[in-house]
Amino acid sequence: MANLKRRHFIQYTAGAAGALVVGWSFLPPRQRLIPGDPLPVAPGQVALNGWVKVSRDNTVTIQMCQAEMGQGIHTGLAMLLADELDAAWDQVTLEQSTLDKIYNNQAEIVDALPFQPDENGSAKRLARWMTAKLIREVPGAIGTGGSSSVNDLWLPMREAGASARAALIAAAADLWKLPAHECRAESGRVLHPSGKSASFGDLAQRAAELAIPKNVPLKDASAFQLIGKPVRRLDNAAKIKGAGIYGIDALPAGLLYASVTMCPTVGGKVARFDATAAQSLSGVRKVFAFEPYAAGLITVGAGTGGVAVIADSPYHAMRALKNVTVEWDHGAASNLSSEQILAGLAQTLDSKSGYVHYEHGDVDTALKSATKTISAEYRVPYLAHATMEPMNCTVQFKDGAATVWAATQTPAFTRDAVAKVLGIHASKVTIIVPSLGGGFGRRTFMDYIGQAAAIAREADGAPVQLMWTREQDMTHDYYRPAFVSRHTAGFDAQGKLTAWKTTSAGSNMGMPDILDGSIKGAFDTGYEFPHARIAHQSVEALVPIGIWRSVSHSHNAFFTESFIDESAFSVGQDPVQFRAALLAGNPRLLRVLQRAAELSNWSEPLAPAPDGAKQARGLALHRCFGSVVAQVAEVSVDLDRKIRVHRVFCVLDCGFPLNPNLIRQQMEGGIIFGLSAALKGEITLEKGQVQQTNFHNYAPLRMNECPLIVTDILPSTEHPQGIGETGVPSIAPAVANAVFTLTGQRLRSLPLKLAV
Amino acid sequence: MTKVKINGQIVEVSAEPDTPLLWVLRSELKLIGTKYGCGMALCGSCTVHLDGAAARSCITPLSAIGEREVTTIEGLHGKEADALREAWTDIDVVQCGYCQPGQLMSASALLQKTMDPTDADVDAAMSGNICRCGTYPRIRAAIHAAARAMGPRLNPPLPLK
Predict the structure, then answer these.
(1) Residues of chain A positioned with their CB less than 8 A from the CB of B131
(2) Chain B CB contacts of A437 below 8 Å
(3) Which of A174, A158, A171, A131 is CA-nearest to residue A215?
(4) A69, A239, A261, A310: best mutation site toward chain B, by most B Cβ within 10 Å?
(5) Class of domain B79-149
(6) Is A323 on the interface with B (CB under 8 A)?
(7) Domain boundaries, chain B
(8) Is residue A497 classed as helix, strand or coil in its secondary structure?
(9) By three-state DSSP, how is residue A471 classified?
């Protein structure tokens, strides 16, 4: 199934890049075991490679280059290294890594390349290989996103553990004057059959003096002690005592606090302000206007300006802001309305056919000769991230150097953003990344970081903590874009789907069409359509947009899986059987689909809800971030026509399951996050101003609305794939499909609302 | 200066009387386990106990505390708290964890009142606490597990002499 345009582009660029860097490209890829600069060590501690240090007191300190934002990645990555090292789990501690290139995240970038997952041609292999090699050379390509961390670090962190184990064994052999191959490691000790034994702590110094072992064989899966086991989280103990440290918990000596009010119109700034009343209030140090700060590399929107107060406490700062009068320069977005934007996207689809991302066969002829066709239009709104911890950043700028405490998904971008605002070299910026109180993509952006740096510049060397109120956080997000999508399907006389044509419109974050990620989840479904064309028309608006947990899969799964369901019902077929017929050549998706049907008793009648209301099931299947997920939702409607979800069955194939406990957590969390958006989530703008301000009008799911969730992880020995975002996309279409079965109403826009 | 009893100790604080308790705890007393989430009593991240009852510290001014004893996550202890923390660990409830101090404060207030809560009791006590990571199913399971672990619902009758 070729896409000629895409393939030509890739071949051309790969060829051009290859010609330019022909010498470089013949070198082996940069190794990921040993950093450019040796790791900093504490007294009594040595580094055995770029990923692990061992102390005389037997502590094993593992380097964490990824952000812990709830997905459990610190526990998962520690398991990889500790298992290959044969460390005892209770001797393991974690530490934030440096920003060395060995920590660059290749998988995040490589997996974002616009290829069909099922394709395995030479162009794809070359482009992936070249990109991976290139990413290893780029300074600061460190980031947590795209559900990529385990995929990226599965080998490097195991290799680091194996290398350190080999070093410790070599040290023991050297000490004991015995052959290394007779020694083995177990639970933090090196043992010899003679009865000799030494702890890692006792051997570390000697091990660090030997050459770092390379290419050490990895364990066979049958020897894993931690990998593949439902290991409990390392961060639980502190977090349940209130001792988890987040961005807003930074407490450097002499800390001051800043609060801001930004122009309510996105992209606006301060025209003039009067701070006379605020200045006279107790605890107030300084009141000033700041410029908009752009969000970083890949986004639309240059930030929004506002007024900041620096004060002795957060309350003093917030109270003072209420006494500042501001006249705003509302800027270019002052007439913007989300309703008009959505109407404009639909109009665009009347006249534009979009950039074709996937084409197979001759869809137009197939539609003309079809016995039956159906068409439908779908819509999704803007969405906010609404992390529980609002955006915040603490910066101290003193003597030409800066220290930054930032709960961020992109620490190197953060360092560079602060350096740029303060006009200092990046090497003068120290970045400390505490736990993130939720990320979901929001904490990849630099707007609040740049703002915090600019505010710290006004504080005469004192550290300042900028914390946005919930209202600022909600109204100045980088939102999941709104989309409109039109779908047409054609069927032959036997009810077989013969043609599939979709065109969507929406913002693509300023990317060129060929690299447009907003088609992901639509052009790579895994269904075998006899004739298909899948296109997207990019339409930019002035609304700041960004990546939101599962990115374009969040809307494309809703469009595709709803319309597949419509297709099945339009020809009187069971939705599971209908999908199975399109997946005959894709056993991986088929296995997940069939297991979901089995787990949910798909073909059995469904008992009423506890209050007697009729229930129905709906199913959706979606592949994203290398994993395949199917979900079945059991749904009823209450007397007020409100949609209720009682149970969700979730089946996934994520490759080798590193930690089934963490994977289940992420499926549950992803489903609930997706359900908040499916049932309630909507950001609207009027006159360029976001209308939702806090959790009363942008309301996430609560305990009393939360379904029971049953997750089944299918066994696999393949390379581990994405987890953190993969639970999100399927739930909205699963619920919408259940609502159709239950009520006969096909809901084609989110959030799902029944006609009363 | 205002005198307040917090986690068993009487402390004097200098914050002005209109200051919400949340900011007294966080910025003056450095009790940073209590979190800011919304400032409008909508999310429960700032939940503390006032004389054992769950209260939202973000809308409770210092002047309203009076004689009542404040308990924060740092000072939360006792058999309900122990049972909840054990269940939270066994079931691995936590994800990002930011809302969890508030969740535990609400859950322990529930168990102090209702030793063997039903699902409806859990809904009523916990629906004021938002979790964006979606830990609700595990919170519900952990509350039930903690209630079970605390033993029989009623004190057993005294043995006859």
Answers:
(1) 388
(2) 35, 96-98
(3) A158
(4) A239
(5) mainly alpha
(6) no
(7) 2-75, 79-149
(8) strand
(9) helix
Which ipTM was obtained for this model?
0.95
Pick the CATH number of A31-104+140-239 from 3.40.630.30, 3.30.1480.10, 3.10.129.10, 3.30.365.10: 3.30.365.10
pTM of the model: 0.95
Which letter does DSSP use for residue A38 in this model? Answer: P
Which of chain B's residues have a Cβ under 8 Å away from the Cβ of A702? 127-128, 130, 136
Helix (H, G, I), strand (E, B) or coil at A605: coil
Measured distance CA(B37)–CA(A520) in Å, rounded: 33
Nearest to A244 among B30, B40, B97 (CB): B97
Return mean pLDDT, chain B.
Answer: 94
- Option in A236, A387, A469 nearest B92 (CB): A236
So where are chain A's domains? 31-104+140-239, 247-333+393-475, 572-756
Interface probe for A, chosen from B16, B22, B85, B133 (most Cβ of A below 10 Å), is: B133
Provide, as residue numbers in chain B, all residues whose Cβ is less than 8 Å from the Cβ of A237.
Answer: 89
**For testing contact with chain A, the best of B29, B98, B110 (most A CBs within 10 A):** B98
| B97-147 residue pLDDT tens | 999 999 999 999 999 999 999 999 999 999 999 999 999 999 999 999 999
DSSP A410-467: -HHHHHHHHHHHHT--GGGEEEE--B-S--TTGGG--HHHHHHHHHHTTTTT--EEEE
Residue with tokens 């993969």: A726
Class of domain A572-756: alpha beta
Q: CA dist B148 to A469, A709, B4, B144, Å?
A: 39, 22, 35, 6
Cα A16 to Cα A9, A134, A180: the distances in Å are 11, 14, 49
Fold of A247-333+393-475: Aldehyde Oxidoreductase; domain 4 (3.30.365)
Chain B hits for A244, Cβ within 8 Å: 97-98, 100
Predicted pLDDT at A121? 87
* SS3 of residue A703 by DSSP: helix
Reported CATH class of domain B2-75: alpha beta
Q: State the pairing for strand pair A256-262/A306-311.
A: antiparallel
pLDDT digits (tens, 9 = 90+) for A258-283: 999 999 999 999 999 999 999 999 99
Integer CA distances (angstroms), A437 to A442, A634, B132, in order: 11, 31, 9
